[in-house]
Design goal:
There is one protein chain. The protein has about 475 residues and is an alpha+beta fold. The chain has eleven helices and 27 strands. The two termini are about 55 Å apart. The relative contact order is 0.06.
Length: about 475
């Protein structure tokens, strides 16, 4: 395998994907710290279930260690599952433009991520490489390779397109976004349903052939040969299919005194239908969220005995309520979960209810009332808070020369002297070099991390030296400020 590519933007952060669900930060730290000192590791998890999302970020202190980890640990097994490592690319611009990205299809089932990487790495530095698999981990026969430069991608396509790999002729082409792919806007196949069960293929053909030449028409039937009420129609050209869809969708027809409203749409694969339905559901959800923005309240710490009717009555004085509900156990509808939602007809009414009802005591329990937040916003806030705490802890734990002190600094301590304030007889610890006292910041440390008073003596160059009336046992010099060892 060729040497790992130079780190984009001199980053020392790696993305580790395809992880086993049971891979933890501790396990990854143990593995990656063999390469070099690790600054931090985070396994990304679902905000609610806390289950692993199958990828993590490993941050080294220097780029050289990150390069070594990428070169030596990529495609190694972690908990019997091959991991995939690449440079962490925070800027999505490179991924979205598709520059240097190629698509390989008709791959042999035996080709995995490592084999694909080894095959294409001779053409240039690879940012990412992946063979697409199903839920059971079996290859689907195609994959993607993202090169650092467009020239490397062009060279790979020129040399390997049409060549045999593991006994199969592969096609190597430039990656295109779904919307830009050929055939996305010139479909000819139509899906039809909700028409009378008495209709035959001849009846349906006579209806749709007026829009253009039909190449195939099939009504789906059961084992007894009876119509299932849906069919597929393929036209010779896109314009005929589009005209048929426009005319037949929602068209009402009569059969034996009964009305039928025909449904017509572009025929799609299952994955395409699921993607389209998800898109529609997300759009409807977003529309509802925007409509209720600032009008929906979240209420928690509700007494278990409060009913939905009582719950509504508590909030009724502050405006027109469109809905009010206490969330209850799915298996036992009588058991309250202790929280609920109230939706008003306007944002002003909701704001008034928050001001009046928050911390109000109901049946000896103070309730909490806030504006409802979307789940994704809550997750973003929690993630930001978590990252801020991690950054703070990282700064504290760094310690060392010129850093902030922490309680575990200077494990090689040799002695601990006492020092006295001559005027007030305060007993204090002298934080000379190697002192285990947690207020000793080591050479050059800023030593008031935990809000301690400024009379503790630091090491050499310590900014936190005592006032002029304090003297250490190991030194007789006395200036305007106490000198360290």
């Amino acid at each position: 395998m060729m040497n790992a590519p130079s780190a984009p933007f001199q980053s020392a952060s790696l993305y580790v994907g395809d992880l086993h669900p049971d891979a933890t930060e501790g396990l990854l730290f143990e593995l990656f710290s063999r390469v070099g000192p690790v600054a931090s590791i985070r396994v990304c998890r679902d905000a609610v279930t806390r289950r692993s999302l199958g990828y993590a970020y490993v941050n080294f202190h220097n780029v050289q260690d990150a390069e070594r980890a990428l070169d030596t640990m990529n495609f190694t097994d972690i908990k019997e599952k091959q991991c995939r490592i690449m440079w962490s690319q925070r800027d999505p611009t490179l991924r979205k433009t598709g520059v240097g990205n190629i698509f390989i299809k008709n791959l042999a089932i035996s080709i995995d991520n490592k084999s694909l990487f080894d095959t294409f790495s001779v053409f240039g530095n690879i940012l990412s490489c992946k063979v697409i698999t199903d839920d059971e981990g079996n290859s689907k026969g195609y994959g993607y390779v993202h090169f650092e430069t467009a020239e490397s991608a062009q060279e790979a396509m020129k040399k390997l397109d049409g060549c045999q790999i593991e006994g199969q002729t592969v096609n190597v082409i430039s990656y295109q976004r779904r919307a830009d792919r050929a055939g996305q806007n010139d479909w000819t196949n139509i899906y039809l349903k909700q028409f009378p069960l008495t209709w035959t293929e001849e009846t349906l053909n006579s209806m749709v052939s007026i829009y253009g030449d039909v190449t195939s028409l099939v009504i789906s039937k059961d084992e007894e040969g009876k119509s299932k009420g849906f069919a597929f129609i393929n036209f010779e050209n896109h314009d005929a299919a589009a005209a048929c869809l426009e005319e037949l969708n929602n068209k009402v027809v009569e059969d034996n005194g009964e009305s039928f409203t025909i449904y017509a749409s572009q025929a799609q694969k299952k994955a395409e239908r699921e993607r389209e339905l998800k898109k529609q559901a997300d759009a409807a959800k977003q529309e509802k969220i925007m409509k209720l923005q600032g009008m929906n309240l979240y209420v928690k710490n509700i007494d278990d005995s409060v009913t939905d009717e009582q719950f509504r009555e508590y909030f009724a004085p502050y405006g027109t309520i469109t809905s009010a509900r206490i969330m209850r156990d799915e298996n036992n509808g009588n058991v309250s979960k202790g929280f609920g939602f109230v939706c008003y007809s306007s944002a002003e009414e909701a704001s008034k209810a928050v001001a009046e009802m928050n911390n109000k005591v109901i049946l000896n329990k103070p309730i909490t009332v806030t504006l409802h937040q979307r789940k994704d916003l809550r997750q973003q806030q929690l993630a930001a808070s978590f990252n801020a705490r991690n950054a703070m802890n990282t700064g504290v734990n760094m310690g060392g020369r010129g850093g902030y002190n922490n309680m575990n600094q200077n494990p090689n301590a040799m002695y601990n002297q006492n020092m006295y304030n001559q005027g007030n007889n305060y007993m204090m610890n002298n934080g000379g070099r190697g002192n285990p006292n947690y207020n000793n910041g080591g050479r050059g440390n800023m030593n008031n991390q935990y809000g301690m008073p400024n009379y503790m003596q630091g090491g050499r160059g310590n900014m936190n030296q005592g006032p002029n009336n304090m003297q250490g046992n190991n030194g007789m010099r006395q200036n305007n400020y106490m000198n360290g060892n």
